[in-house]
Amino acid sequence: MRPTEAPRPYLVRSRFATTGLMCVPSVAAEIDRLARPYLTVEPGLAGPGDWQVGAGLPATPGAVPEPVRALGEPTVEYAVDHAARRLFHLAPEGPAWACQSLLRATRAVHRSAAARGGMLFLHAGLVELNGLGVALVGGSRAGKTSFVMAAVLDGQGVMVCNDDVSLSADETGRGVLGAGWPRSVSVRLDTLDLLFGPERARAVQAGLTHPANATLPSLRASGVERHGTALIYPWEYADLLKTEIGRSTRVDALVHLSLADAPDEAELSAVAPRERAALLDRHVLDTPNKHLNIFGHAPDPRIPLRTRDALTALPTFRFRYVFRDVRCEVDRLGAHLRAALPVV
To answer: Is the pTM of this model over 0.70?
Structure first.
């Protein structure tokens, strides 16, 4: 932060909520860059009843501690005044952590509002693959990030989100719309090696700006993440892959993704309609946020069920691929979907 800067009021908007942001202009400018294209940041005062997040301000007397402990990161300390609807970033100090912390808190408020409005959250990436909206469903280490990056790098895909997508049935109740959120992309270091070569991968890693990248190597050293990982902000992702980031897209197909240990274990097959619901339910998120589920997020239960029904009606596939062959596997899945799905 520049010494002469004083905190100023800003508004953060999505189609789900409007929230206030109180911080110095340089931090607001960086949050604007980190939040695009999902959220917009502009000067303005928060309205009555809107949540406001801020940094560089003393917490109000009614605020209570709310620490966030994410794997491989230092503890992020907040103070939350629920009565006044204000959240304060306290630590770690410095502009990089202030930006990251305020973005995380703002995102949590907006995602909670989306959940109250009936959005269903799914552990899946969402990519436009040759014009088709494909939700790549799977847990951690299923190969979602590697697949999306390979698709984008080869010019076949546009990333909407990398790891979790919010979904809603359209007005007809038959189609599904998917939206992304401003989250950093967690990338295995061997994915960077595979896609860019070791030398360029090291240069990419050295230029990343997420503050947690300074402490993430501890996960590899401890054996928790044996491949190592790095966090890439959406704007860095777009620059690295020379692409745009999609804000939202329709969903034309669900693909349940996993990694195979050997080529003879690779699989590409359709999922029968009777199996789809149970397979989908394994990856529906119970809460909209990994952290800071403190803003209320319970919807009318009938609305997400409508989206779930629309999702289980979509063409659904299992796709198991070999990591080292990911670029060829993007071609294989793309060709299969073009042949299997009607022209949209």
So the answer is: yes
